[in-house]
């Protein structure tokens, strides 16, 4: 016995049905199967869900024969023994079709007669019961009952998400129709209740009216300095209530605010300002030295504004004409509402939020007013937030998780947002109690840090009714909600620059979202097969991508629909970088999708689970780390030697720790110099935790460094002949990794 696999079935416009047999031998065929889109009906019968074609094998031996029904017509499958063509579909003759139609009419009449007889004999109730029993038996035998089970199981989840999605689309339509921007929406909320608390910070309460006035001052200062719609003014600062007020003020002019990661220094900081096409940069006093370090390399056309949210004036700013004192300018600025640009729209650019993407230095992802609304609104409606909620966030305000999903609840929907300057595990619950927070957001690492704090009596004394965020590990999910008595966890997933966000709206442990099994076309996302080494999509003989089946890992994609603001892909400021995130000819020829670079897997019910990242990026401490960027920095420090960077898993820690293999055959590597250089040039999360000293770095035929074998070796010194070092957090130096230290890292006695 052998199997014959039908790779695909196509119903043409001419009514013909064509099948492509993947295997060439068709003699002694015992069964036929599809690769995708098929549900099993019986031992040797399958149904194609997409085409609604039933195939039934009629015989074995020297030929493969089957009968199919397509829109009431009939087709016949034949294959000769050993034929290298594999068989072909042919439409049955008109005479044969007519005969079968007559037979069906006769059979139908017979069934009706039998049913009438049974009705007279048993009565209607018994007949209905008999039909139901027969239907259940048929579904059980064919396998089709499984779809009904899945539909019943997931209908409440799908209905909840669909309701929220419809509300979101209605809200987007309303804002689009009225051409409203974020400042317009914020002003409308302020007019309703100007003294309502907008932001809570330390012991300060910032009302809507106070934030509005501050944004007026910002707008009037930059308008007086000649800034207009489309220009970019970068913002480099710490968390504070004035932070969103600054970008709201700039948005009143139609200006764009690139939110610069305040961990960046040196070349990475210079690159962020450059790639964001900044015409000016606002930096808070804490980052004056960082700006001075790159000032000579900045374009002379970029204006610099020193700013103190605390109101501290600079004695030196403005003395040389290079740096302006924004603090003084704001104090004397007018609080009269500035005149809005007449051509400002809901689809204009609002922010640039930086992300490392899949490769290279930070990229500036484009956030329009409509995109901001879509990202924030999705969380709002799925979490059922209200104006009475107090949302607590300690995430950096340059990050979309804080700037959009948290702060946006105040800007768009009228909730109060409590802001902390920097995350503190020991103060997280204390702050939630202090501010009477009802909602908080997180990233996965934060949840692990919270669990690492010794249990105390205040753990459950908060008023949190839900938390939302991304990256909560399945291994600690239940422990987290049990210890802190969190009723609801809303886990979401989505790249800042992407067009496909998904949400786990029913608290299924470990899931990051779902795709409906009932109506999957409502939200066109999918998982496609990719090469595990290159991340490139695997295509079929027609050049289209192959969809993953349940429990089969694949890369997450979202279909692009340019005219739909909820499905458009805005990408990066750098158009070439944006193009790298698009693949074409996926579902059909000519279409395009956003490819996330993340490997997910779905279960039978449609729940999606995160598996890993493809390409040269891994995640550590809640941040994406680009290996290309780290390799380039290390190469500069060690005089251009070969250095290969990759991520390795560490027990009980989320993500992957950076590890670098360095070619040092002569043994002249200066580890002290390397540690100092990395501390200077890279943010903390991007610095390699482990080093492996190699005689040489293996290369491919195209001079690309191999890292798969190194990654599989991990950092266990007992299984590696090379010298291995780890970054001691106390001394800031790389020290030899012994087996004893290795065991302490694995047990958590040494924290990385």
Q: Average pLDDT, to the nearest integer?
A: 82
* Secondary structure tally, helices: 20
How far is it from the N-terminal to the C-terminal residue, by CA? 57 Å
Q: Give the low-confidence spans.
A: 1-94
* C-alpha Rg (nearest Å): 31 Å
Number of strands: 37
- In helices, the fraction of residues equals 25-40%
Overall shape? globular
Largest sheet: 8 strands, mixed
Notes on the structure:
The chain is of the alpha/beta class. It is 32% helix and 26% strand. The chain contains 20 helices and 37 strands. It has an eight-stranded mixed beta sheet. Strands 4-5-6-7-8-9 form a six-stranded antiparallel beta sheet. The longest helix has 33 residues, at 145-177. The two termini are 57 Å apart. Mean pLDDT is 82; it is low at 1-94.
Q: Topology, please?
A:
Layout: E1 2-11, E2 17-21, E3 29-34, E4 38-42, E5 45-48, E6 53-59, E7 63-70, E8 73-80, E9 88-91, H1 94-122, H2 124-142, H3 145-177, H4 182-192, E10 197-201, E11 204-207, H5 208-224, E12 233-236, H6 242-251, E13 257-259, H7 266-275, E14 280-284, H8 288-294, E15 303-307, E16 323-325, H9 326-332, E17 349-355, E18 363-368, H10 369-383, E19 390-393, H11 400-403, H12 407-413, E20 416-419, H13 428-434, E21 439-443, H14 444-452, E22 466-470, H15 474-484, E23 488-493, E24 502-504, E25 513-514, E26 525-528, E27 554-559, H16 575-579, E28 582-584, E29 592-602, E30 607-613, E31 617-620, E32 623-626, H17 627-637, E33 643-648, E34 657-663, H18 671-681, E35 690-694, H19 708-713, E36 723-728, E37 733-736, H20 739-747
Parallel strand pairs: 1-3, 10-20, 12-14, 13-17, 14-15, 15-16, 19-20, 19-21, 21-22, 22-23, 34-35
Antiparallel strand pairs: 1-2, 4-5, 5-6, 6-7, 7-8, 8-9, 10-11, 17-18, 23-24, 25-30, 26-27, 27-29, 28-29, 29-30, 31-32, 33-34, 35-36, 36-37
